[in-house]
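Slide 14.
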Amino acid sequence: MARPTSLEIVSELVANVLTIEVAEGDRVEAGDTVVLLESMKMEIPMLAERGGTVTAIKVTVGDVVQDGDVLVVLD
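Slide 15: predicted structure.
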């Protein structure tokens, strides 16, 4: 479970993980793409809602994610 100050970036739909744009330890800013999803031949960027440091990546390229699945955790 994420710490209270952590932010979990979650999938908003059923999709395939196309690319992971960050690595653990990377610093991201609000609006940065952290994961690129693909659904019905459309690419959907999952964006950081705020700045922070990537503390965990919960998916791998090729995974099928469901609505609400945690993709990346920021601290």
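Speaker note: The chain has no helices and eight strands.
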